[in-house]
Amino acid sequence: MISDERIKQLEDKARQLRLSVVEMIGVGPVGHLGGSCSCADIVTALYYYRMNFDPKDPRKPDRDRFLLSKGHAALVQYAALADLGFFPKEELRRVKVLGGMLQGHPDMNTPGIEANTGSLGQGLSIANGMALGLRLDGLTSKVFVVLGDGELAEGQVWEAAMASANFKLDNLLAFVDQNALQATGPIVERFDLNPIAPKWAAFGWHVIEIDGHNMREIVAAIDEADTVKGRPTVIIAKTVKGKGVSFAENNPAFHNGAMTAEQYEQARRELGAVEEGC
Amino acid sequence: MKKESLRLAYGQALVELGREDERIVVLEADLGKSTMSILFQEEYPDRYFEMGIAEANMAGTAAGLSLVGKIPFIHSFAVFASGRAYDQIRQSIALVGLNVKICGSSAGLSDFGDGATHQSIEDMALMRANPNMTVLVPVDAVETRKMVKAMVDWDGPVYIRINRNDLPVITDPDSDFEIGKLQVVRDGSDVAVFANGVMVSMALEAAEELAKDGISVKVINASTVKPLTDEEVLAHVEGCRGVVTAEEHSIIGGLGSAVASALRRKRDLPIEFVGVRDSFGTSALSYEELLNHYGLTADAIKDAVKVVLEG
User: Fold this and answer.
1) pLDDT tens-digit map of A67-101
2) Which residues are CB-contacts of A168 (< 8 A; sequence separation ≥ 6)?
3) I need a surface site. Which of A189, A202, A219, A276 has the fewest CB within 10 A?
4) Which residues, numbered 80 to 119 in chain B, qualify as contacts with chain A under a Cβ-Cβ cut-off of 8 Å?
5) Do the Cβ atoms of B56 and A163 come within 8 Å?
6) Per-residue pLDDT tens for A191-202?
7) Domains (range + CATH), chain A
8) Are A125 and B95 within 8 A, CB to CB?
9) Which residues of B are known catalytic residues?
10) What is the ipTM of this complex?
11) Which domains, ranges and CATH numbers included, belong to chain B?
C-alpha cells in the first residue's frame, strides 16, 4: 500500500502543477483554467505515480502513452511535461505565442505529446488504435486517456467505447473528468448526459467511481484497473472545475476566462506560491 | 480494351504487400466484400480489424495505430470514407501528416444503383483541401496495383479513390508509377486533355474521333490529383492551344480546379471542364446510363475540345 508520505508528495505535486497553470495564464490573456485544474490530480497520479516513460527518450517504443482527449486542458499537461524535463520550463512562458512550441491544444511537435487532440471526442479512438497496435507488437505498455464529461456528448466517444470493449482492450485506461460544467454552464442544465457510469457499464467497461481530488482514491483506482483483464476500465472521477482557485471553483466563467491582477495574485497565494526575492 | 476490376486488384495488392510488410494493418467498416479488403482478413486475420459501421472511430483508430508504427489502411465507400470521417481525417490524421491510407471505394457515380447518398461527387475536393494529404485516382487495375505499393512507400496520409466497376486496362504493367507524375497515354499537339479514372478511356475515344477531323489531342492520365505541381501541369500543355479536364466528380474542387489553378498564369490558354455540374447523384439501372445523364461521355469531351479551340 502506498504510504501517507507518498500521497502527500503527490498532492503537493498537483498543487505545483495548478500553480504552474495559473502562472502560464497570467493576467489578461484567456486560458482554460477550470478544466486544467479539475484534472490536475489525475494527471499528477498518472505522470508521477503510474506511467513508465523517459523524458530523455520521449519516443521510446515501450513507454506508456497519455492522451488528453479534452485537449483544452493542455496547460496542466504542459506543466507536468516541463517539470519532468521533457522540455525547458522557459517554454511555459510562451504558451500560444506565434512561433512558440506550446500550442493552444496539444500538438505532437511538443516532446511528450502523443497526438493532436482538442477536437473533442477523438482521443479515445486514437487510444484504441495505440492499444491495438501495442498489443499486436506484444508490448505491455498501457494507454491512458482523459476525457471531459461535456465531451461525452460527442457520438464518436461511444463508437470508440464500443470498440474498446469489442477488442477487449485491457491495456487501456480511460478517465472521465466529471467536473459537471461545460463551457456555457452546468451540464445538467445545458445538456444533461447523466447518468454516466451505467452508460459505460452497458458498453462493456469495468467502471470505477471516485472522488477525483482524493489522491488515495485515484491511486487505488489506477491499481485496481491494472488487475482487470479482458475488458477496458474507465475511472469516473467526480471533480470540481477550477479546483484549488476559490473564485474559479464551479464557475463556468473560468472555463476559458481571464484573471484580473487581483485574482491572479489571489490564485497564486491560494496555491501556495513562494515569493521570490527581487 | 479488356476490362478488369480495380477493387479486386486493390485487395490482391494489399495481400501481396502485407506479406512483405508486417506494419500493414487493415481496418474495415463492414464493406469488406465491396472494397475487397476482406481478402486481407483471409490471409492475416490478426492484422485485420472489423470496426463496425463506424467510420469516424475507424479513422481515429487508424491514427492511433500509425502512432505506434503501423501502416493502417482504412476502407469504406468514398462518400463515407471522405465525408463521414472528414473531421477525424482532418484533426487526427492530416494535421499531423500521419501515415494512414484511406481507401474510398465505389467512388464517384460508380455505385450507380444506390443513388445520391452513396455516390461521391465531392470526395476529391474534400481530401485535396487538407494540407499533407495525397490524392490518387487509379485509371485501371494495373495502375491500382502499382499505386498501392507506392502508397506503402509514401510516408504520409494518402486517399485513393477506386471505381466499383470493371474498367478498360490502359496502362502498361512495365511502366513506372510515381506519385505526383502525370502520364501521357496518347500524344497530341492541339489540345491537352487531363482526365482520371473512368474518364481516361473516354478521353482516348474522343481523341481517336477528333483525329479524323484533323484535331490532335493529347490525353494525360492525371492519376495524382495531389501533390500536383505547376511545373508538372505546365510541362504537359507546352505548345497546346487549349486544355480540357475530365473527371467523375463535381467540377468544384477536383481535378479541373487543380489543373486550372496550375495554369492560372496562362491567359491565352482556354480551359473547359467536363464533370458533374454542381449536382448530387441519383439512382440508375446502369453505370453507362448514369454517366450519360451527367454528361460524362466521350462526346462531351469532344465538344469541350472544340470549344477551347474556338476559344
Assistant:
1) 999 999 999 999 999 999 999 999 999 999 999 99
2) A230, A231, A232
3) A276
4) 87-88, 90-92, 95-96
5) no
6) 999 999 999 999
7) 4-270 (3.40.50.970)
8) no
9) 55
10) 0.95
11) 3-168 (3.40.50.970), 183-310 (3.40.50.920)
